[in-house]
Design a protein that fits this description.
Number of strands: 9
Number of domains: 2
Largest sheet: 4 strands, antiparallel
Structural class: alpha/beta
Shape: elongated
Radius of gyration: 28 Å
Low-confidence stretches: 1-27
Amino acid sequence: MIFFKIGKLTFLIVILFLATSLSTFGQSKKGIIQGKVSDLESKQPIPSAQIFLYRNFSEPPFSGTLSDLLGNFQLGNINPGIYLITSSCLGLEDDTLGPFIVTADTVINLQIQLDLDVGRSAKQAQRDIGNGIIQIYLVGWPMYSKEEADLAKSYGFKIGADGCFPMDDSRYNQFVINYLKKRNGDYWYDKFLEEWKNLQQEQLDKTKKN
């Protein structure tokens, strides 16, 4: 009788252990998305940025949260699947990441960088460079000489022009200037501006003589 009871008790313990393990296993098969939201140029954290998770943009957000005072955020309990994530904050450009795959028992870390929603942004410069477009906006009208274009080309970029509606290009230009520092040196832009100024003076002098 004692042996039977011990055996029965052991059997019940095994069943309870298996049930607990299966329950824990089922709960753990979720993903976590976490990261930090910061300013693209200053690298400072952005608090209270809105983070939304989508399966696709034709449906409402699957989940959402706000970044904390240090710009950190976390979305948990995410079923395995393919998702998109958006981030936004008043006065800054919205950003979209994805699509990316969330798998079971994994943590995805994202670094989200937002830029001011004024004029041409550093984010736009980043996209242009990624597409092979390296330019700096130097003139208000698309009118510049071949010599000026060649000078810019020798420094690795082409001249951008605002056209009829001038914009604030400072953040865009600064991102490109910093990018080109890796190839041309830290003080390359000062050297370029000096040559640019001298070239424009030469062209002005020629015009006066004619």
